[in-house]
Amino acid sequence: MIHDVAVIGAGIVGSAVARELSGHRVSVALLEARDDVGDGTSKANTAILHTGFDATPGTLESELVRRGYRLLSDYAQLTGIPVEHTGALLVAWDQEQLDALAGLRDKAEANGYHRCAIVDAAEVYRQVPHLGPGALGGLTVPDESIICTWTVNLALATDAVNRGTTLLTGHRVESVSRRGDLTTLGTTGGTVRARWVVNAAGLGADKVDALFGHRRFTVTPRRGELIVYDKLARALVDKIVLPVPTSRGKGVLVSPTIYGNVMLGPTSEDLTDRSATATSETGFEFLLEKGRVLMPELLAEEVTATYAGLRAAIDHPDYLIDTDAEQHYLLVGGIRSTGLTSGMAVAEHVRDQLLSAGMELATRTDLPDPPAMPNLGEAFPRPYQQADRIAADPAYGRIVCFCERVTEGEVRDACHSVIPPTTLEGLRRRTRVMNGRCQAFFCGAEVQALLEGNRS
Ligand SMILES: Cc1cc2nc3c(=O)[nH]c(=O)nc-3n(C[C@H](O)[C@H](O)[C@H](O)COP(=O)(O)OP(=O)(O)OC[C@H]3O[C@@H](n4cnc5c(N)ncnc54)[C@H](O)[C@@H]3O)c2cc1C
Q1: Residue 248 confidence (pLDDT)
Q2: What mean pLDDT is predicted for residues 307-331?
Q3: pLDDT of residue 245
């Protein structure tokens, strides 16, 4: 089969692009090296829906984060992706940082975000009473929000498939050849032919770009490690507590998570190994040192889990989205630390670039409704709390994961969904199962049996 367009990479960006393009009269294939969607950087980030207040004004990143915030907020309402508009407080700990707050507020204004306010130390402690001693002042960012990154990726990919996208997992692109109007992609899952190709391969984007003959950038995996604290810590903090950003990034924050925990992180460490998602002792020591200053009481709480994600940092100061009209090829590179927020806006930008490069994209009028996603958010009703659902279907009353209160009905639904999980990890991202205190110690065997039972 020949596709009009092949999108490489089923993270948030590739899934958003496939969804956007399949809203037009074209056939789309979404190629993913791994066995599931959302199994790369998009599964392991800090899950903040950014306003873009601290982006570099005038960059493509600033424009697309701002637009992405709006698009994803609206899409979340339509699909049930959980979002909590907690707001953020950026805290200054020394005079230099205090002096920087006015510049940050001006930067926010230049980015089109007008709701930041500088507050004094008393207000900082009123808003975050458990903050460590020594804060001198702060900057409020009322619209920064927390979101479920897993559901975002899954919703976009599910929507794409519902709109007709052919999802090809287990298809790592390893070679490219072009003859006439057609590109042939040699993949680990077989050959795929397409008239246009979009490279949204994240950490692998430079390698795929090289297959098209380009040598224009290198991806450096920038590891971010995080510590997730127990739900009992949630009372300590109800908003995102940010440091003053530096040239290395946004710094270490303390934030509630959408699952009802509190997280501390991330680190920022350039590596060479693009698969190095293990956590490290030095990373923890660094985070604990920061945490001791930010919120000493947090460190007395139990740690539920730790994880690390790799940002696709590149040697270019902005997103690198570029069309090679001759080869009918478009690169989406360097979506390092804001792609969860900007993904849907990146997809719109890709659509416009393809149109300008001559691709025919006629809008469809027969689109299916956006998918209704299961709620994984702690702040919203979940099946075990809904008597009417349990009465109608007792499987929603049988809890299999007690730490996270996940029911047999939710596991069953995930296994029979449009993009079912292939592994326990995939099931975790769809239900929250095994994501709590016991980390599968008590429920792992039963969950495995349920996964297998539902698949057979
Ligand atoms: C620690 C950390 C914190 C972050 N915090 C935030 C945040 O709070 N808010 C925010 O907006 N963003 C945040 N980000 C950034 C965000 O997570 C990323 O920008 C986003 O997930 C990138 O999505 P993607 O689709 O480009 O990449 P990915 O999710 O990595 O998807 C790329 C996909 O391409 C596949 N692939 C690679 N090579 C090939 C190939 N040759 N053939 C086929 N498939 C291939 C991979 O398997 C992968 O699934 C954070 C990132 C990190 C690491």
Answers
A1: 64
A2: 96
A3: 84
63 and 187 both lie in a single domain: yes
Q: Which domain holds residue 339?
A: 1-84+144-217+315-375
Strand partners, 223: 269, 310
Q: Which residues approach ligand 1 with their CB closer than 6 A?
A: 8-14, 31-34, 39-42, 45-48, 50, 172-173, 200-204, 208, 224, 266, 309-311, 335-341
In this structure, are 290 and 239 located in the same domain? yes
**At which residue do the structure tokens 């619209």 appear?**
143
Ligand 1 centroid–CA 200 distance in Å is 9
pLDDT of residue 141: 98
Give the model confidence (pLDDT) of 256-271 as tens digits. 999 999 999 999 999 9
Tell me the C-alpha distance between 96 and 98, whole Å: 5
**266 upstream amide cis, omega within 30 of 0:** yes
In angstroms, rounded to a whole number, what is the distance separating the alpha carbons of residues 351 and 26?
12
Rounded Cα gap, residues 159 and 162, in angstroms: 5
- CATH number for the domain spanning 94: value is 3.30.9.10
pLDDT exceeds cutoff 90 at 1: no
Number of domains in the chain: 3
- Quick check: helix, strand or coil at residue 5? strand
For residue 152, report the phi and psi dihedrals to the nearest 5 degrees: -60, -50
CA gap 376, 409 in Å, rounded: 14
For residue 228, which of 439, 440, 453 has the smallest C-alpha distance? 439
Supply the CATH number for residue 349's domain.
Answer: 3.50.50.60
Show the CA angle centred on residue 222, arms to residues 151 and 430, nearest 5°.
15
The number of angstroms, rounded, from the C-alpha of 49 to the middle of its chain's C-alpha atoms is: 9
Task: Return d(Cα 18, Cα 21) in angstroms, integer.
Answer: 5
Q: How many other CB atoms are there within 10 angstroms of residue 180's CB atom?
A: 6
- Residue 12 Cα to ligand 1 middle (Å): 7
Residues 456 and 451: their CA atoms lie apart, in Å, by: 9
Residue nearest to atom 18 of ligand 1 (CA): 339
State whether 280 and 332 are in the same domain.
Answer: no
> Tell me, what amino acid is at 147?
I
* Cβ pair 330, 196 in contact under 8 A: yes
How many whole angstroms separate alpha carbon 20 and alpha carbon 163? Answer: 9
- Report pLDDT for 304: 97
